[in-house]
Design brief:
CATH superfamily: Carbon-nitrogen hydrolase
Strand order of the largest sheet: 5-4-3-2-1-14
Bound molecules: 4-methylsulfanyl-2-ureido-butyric acid
Largest sheet: 6 strands, mixed
CATH class: Alpha Beta
Number of strands: 14
Strand content: 25-35%
CATH architecture: 4-Layer Sandwich
Distance between the termini: 41 Å
Helix content: 10-25%
Number of helices: 9
Order of helices and strands: EHEHHEEEHEEHEHEEEEEEHHH
Structural class: alpha/beta
């Protein structure tokens, strides 16, 4: 059997006054603890390097772009890459990406997977962008991902890394079965995902009390139905006055939660994952080649 020891590096709040350098210092503290606990891979949340800026309506493009990274590694994140390499550990990092592509500037909500030698081996750009594009001042805070980001254009890639088939998705993606299934069809063995989930959703406040349940339900279903590990990592706590779900967790291919954060601050949740644990699911109940009926699912891609 193959094992991979993974650390879900939950982060407490990152306020607007915190610099990239402040954040990277906290990320490095996570790496060092993860090393002591025998981790091979550390997973950081969505938009790890700054506060969750889509909560604000901004018009000044320079102000907006101050939350984006133009290169990776950057001056501020080089220390993270160097420390991980020195410790012989990989990591997954979410950040706002400013890319110059097809002759124009494009902005994505991105995560990358970095191998032990410091190489970026996979990139994912968030597909399901929640929230709204226009200013809705009646909300206590905004959720302007549809304003600040384009829909990701890389699909859901699954790559061989850390001796496994690794995939990524980001936050709202975890609520959609298609996310996991597209990776399941590529034989994914571990899905790495970071999230920022405010505990209040203005258009549907009756869902608020179910935030914990919906988070867990989505990740457990995705894991079980595709025979894959799911590593869900929060930025939790109260950030700029907005309380967010913590509850980072590692879910086995059985759908069982095997490790979980206790608090809502910086906290490392570790599990030694048996990468072959998904095999019995992939070869029986969810043997796709034998049991799936894609002809009957056409509507899914036609509408
Ligand atoms: N970051 C992110 O995708 N958060 C969403 C909140 C949606 S409320 C408009 C989530 O699905 O957790």
């Amino acid at each position: 059997t193959r094992f991979l020891t993974v650390g879900a590096a939950q982060m407490g709040p990152i306020q607007r006054s915190h610099t990239r350098r402040d954040v990277v210092e906290r990320l490095i503290a996570h790496l060092r603890e993860a090393r002591r606990m025998g981790c091979d891979l550390v997973v950081f949340p969505e938009l790890t390097l700054t506060t969750f800026f889509p909560r604000w309506w901004m018009k000044d493009q320079a102000e907006i772009d101050s939350f984006f990274e133009q290169e990776m590694p950057s001056n501020e994140t080089a220390a993270l890459f160097n420390e991980a390499k020195r410790l012989d550990m990989g990591f997954c990092l979410g950040y706002a990406e400013l890319a110059n592509e097809d002759g124009r500037i494009r902005r994505f909500n991105t995560s990358i997977l970095v191998e032990r030698d410091g190489r970026i081996v996979a990139k994912y750009r968030k597909v399901h962008l929640p929230g709204h594009a226009g200013h809705e001042p009646e909300r206590p805070f905004q959720h302007l991902e549809k304003r600040y980001f384009e829909v990701g254009n890389l699909g859901f890639p699954v790559v061989k890394a850390f001796g496994a088939n690794m995939g990524m998705c980001i936050c709202n993606d975890r609520r959609w079965p298609e996310t996991y299934r597209v990776m399941g069809l590529q034989n994914v063995e571990m899905v790495l995902l970071g999230y920022n989930t405010p505990l209040h959703n203005a258009p549907s406040p009756d869902h608020d009390e179910h935030s914990w349940f919906h988070n867990q339900l989505s990740m457990q279903a995705g894991a079980y139905q595709n025979g894959t590990w799911v590593v869900g990592v929060a930025k939790g706590g109260t950030e700029e006055g907005v309380p967010s779900l913590a509850d980072s967790m590692i879910v086995a291919p059985s759908g069982k939660v095997v490790a979980r954060a206790g608090g809502d601050g910086d906290e490392l949740v570790v599990h030694r994952c048996d990468l072959d644990a998904g095999k019995s699911y992939k070869t029986t109940t969810f043997n796709f080649a034998v049991h799936r009926q894609p002809d009957q699912y056409r509507m899914i891609v036609e509408r």
